[in-house]
Write a structure and sequence with these properties.
19 strands, elongated, 22 helices, 7-stranded antiparallel β-sheet, alpha+beta, 40% helix, single chain
Amino acid sequence: MEIEDEAITVHDNEIESVNNQNAILEDGVIAIDENEERIANKNDIVTKEISDVLTNTILVEEDVSGCLIGLRRKTVEDMYKLYCSHARALGFSVRKGTTRYNTSGKLAEKYFYCSSSGHRECKQYVPNDKETKIVHITRTGCKALIRVKLQGDGCYEIINHVKGHNHELTRPEWSHLHRSERQITDDKGNAIEDMISSGMKPTDSFRYMAHDAGGEDCIGHTLRDHMNYVNRLRMDAIEGGDANSMIEILYEQASQETDFFFRIRHDNMGRLCSVFWRDSMMREDYNVYGDVVSFDTTYRTNKYNLIYGPFVGLNNHRKSIFFACAFLADEKTESFEWLFEVFKKSMGGKTPVYPLTRHRLCQWHLHQNAISRFGKLKHEKSFKDAFQKCLSGCDDELEFESCWKSMITEYDMEKNSWFARLYNLKAKWCTALNKDFFSAGMLSTQRSESTNSAIGVNAKKTTNLTEFYQLFIATLNKWRRNETQDEFKCSISIPKSRMQLTGMLKHASEVYTLTLFEIFEIEFMKCVFSQSTVLHVVDSVITYDISNDNGRDHRVLFDASKKLVSCTCKKFEECGLLCHHCLRVLNINNVCKIPQQYILKRWTKNAKSEIWDRFNTRIEGGSDNPASSVPWRHDMARKYYNFLLECQDDVEARKILEDGYNRDVVAVKKLKSSSNSVDGEHSSSSNVVLDPIRSVTKDRRQRIKGPLQKNTKKRSINTSQSVSSNEFSTKTPNVRLF
C-alpha cells in the first residue's frame, strides 16, 4: 500500500475491493456522515441534472468498439459493464484490476484489464502419485486496459484506453463463452436456489433455464458455472462445519415450534456421533398411531457412514408416517439405550419400545438371509413354499411345529446350525406365535424400507448431514401431503363396493377410511361363501364351526347378550379388523352394525379428530404458534399467484402491481417498526461440535448385514477405534422443549 496524489493504492489483480465501512455512493451524491446530510440534500438538483446528462449519453451511444476515452458513468460497475460491451464487440474477456481509494475512503481510481494481461507464475514441476490437473496458458502479457477516475462532480470518466492486443481475438459467436460474459446475477442465483431447494438436480435446473432463455448460448453462463454455483450453495450451507450447520437448523426449528424436540450426542473428542429429532406433528401422530412402531437401522447413505434410523408408523390409510428420526455412529448397546430413552422422553414417557412391548424380526430380511443358506435348494420351489408357510402361513403353534418338523425332515436339515438358531428365535418371527397382540398386520420393516427408498433416491455417498436433513424434510412433507389428500378424499367420497351397501357393509363404509373399507369388503365377501355349523350352546354363548373352501376350520364364540365374538384365527387381535369367520356369525345372528368394541379408532375416518380440534382452537384463539398462520398464508399465496399469472402479460397491469407491492412493503415496515414487540432469537449452541469422521468406503449404499447374515467365523476387532460408554456425552439444547 502506498500514498500517491492523496490516493491510497490497493493492488488487486482479480477482485474489486469494497470498503463497507466508508462512504456510500448513491445517485451521484457522496454521503459521508450525518453532519453532511444537509449538503447532500442541496445537491439533489445537481444530481438530477447529471443523471439526465448520463441518460442522454447512454441513449445516443451505440458503437462501443472504438476508443472509450472521455465516456462517463455514474458508478464503477457501470464502467465495468461498458468495457465488457467493448470486449464483447471485439472478442476478448475483461478482468478487474488495481483499485485506489482517496483519503476519505472513496473509490477514486480503477483499472480494468484484458484477461490475457500479465504472466502466469512458473512453478517447478514436482512428480507425485496424484494426477495433476492441466491448466492451459491464457495470459500473454497483453497491455490492453482502461483507466477510470473519479471526477469532481461524482461521476467516473475513462481517462486512458489502451486498445492494442498481442493475441488473437475470438469470433463474435463465441463471445458468450468469455468469463466476463458468464455472470450469474442475483436473480438467476435466486432462481437456481429455488429449483435446487425444490428437489431438481443441478443439470436439470440448467436445462430448464436454457430452455426458458432460448438455448444454452443465451442463458449467460455455462454448465460448469452452474455446477460451481450449486456447489458454493452447498458450501455456504455448511459454513462453520456440517455438524454445526445441522445443529443450528435444529435450534432454529425449535425456536419457531414450541414442541419441537431434539438431542445431540458427541464423543470425548467433541465429534458428533448421534442426533435425534422430532417435530410437534410427529408426537401428535404417535399419540394416535403409536401402538405399532417400525425401527430399522440397516441404511447408511451419507459421507460419514452414519446409521439412519427412522421411527415409522402406520396411519389410518395404511400408509407410512414418521414418528422421529435419528443418526447413530454405531450399533452398540449404549447407543441404542441412549436413543430409546430419548425417544421415550420425547413422547412424554409413552411406550411401545422397551419392556412392555414385543419385538419382532423382519420377515423380509429373514427370507433374504435364508435364500443364501438354501444351497442346492435355492431353486426348489416346494422348499421355498414350505419355508414361507412356516414364516406366516400357520394359524397356531401346533400347525407351525408340524410344518417345521416336516420341512426339516424332508430336506435333511437336522444338522444345519443356521436353521437351528432360527428355530430358537421363532417367537420373534413366527406369525402363529404372535397372534395374541396387535401389530396392524405388519410382518416386516417394510415401512422403514419405504422411507429408506424414498430418501435414498437422492442421497449419495457424498451427502452431508445438512443435505440429508433437507431430503428427510422433503420426504416428510410429501408423505403429509399424501395423507392430506387421503383425508380429503375420505371426507367427500363414498366407497364404491362390489356388493350392495347394506347392513354391516354400509356401516363399515361410514366409519372406516377408503383403504380399510376395501380390506373389510374382502373379508365380508369371504363370509358370504363360508359355511357355519353350531357345535353347542351354553346359556347365551354359542360356539360355531366356520369352514371355507381351503379346508381350514375355525371356532367362533358368540355371546348374543353382549354382542361379543371371538375367533381362533385371532385376526382382530392382530390387525384390529374382524375376520370373515366373525362376520359370518354376526351376519347369521342379524347383527346389522359392527359392534362398537370392534371398531378401532385408529382405522376410522375420525382417527385424528382431536388433533384437528386442537389445531382449530389454536387458530381461533390467535395462538402465537407459526402453524396458526398456515391456512391464511396458503390462501394468500394462491390468490397472489393467480393474480400474478393474470398480470404477467400486461405491462400496465404489472406496473400497477409493482407499485402496489412497494407501497404495501413501506406500510408494513412502518407498522412493524412502530410495534413494541421484539422478535425472540433462538439460542445457538454455545459449544462447537465437530463433524463425524468421514468414512471412506467403496459403496455406502449397501445394506448392513444382520446377525443371521454374518459368517459364524470370529473376526478380529480393531479395539483401537472402540470407544467406551463413559467417553460419550449428551448435549441438551438450551431451549424449552416442553
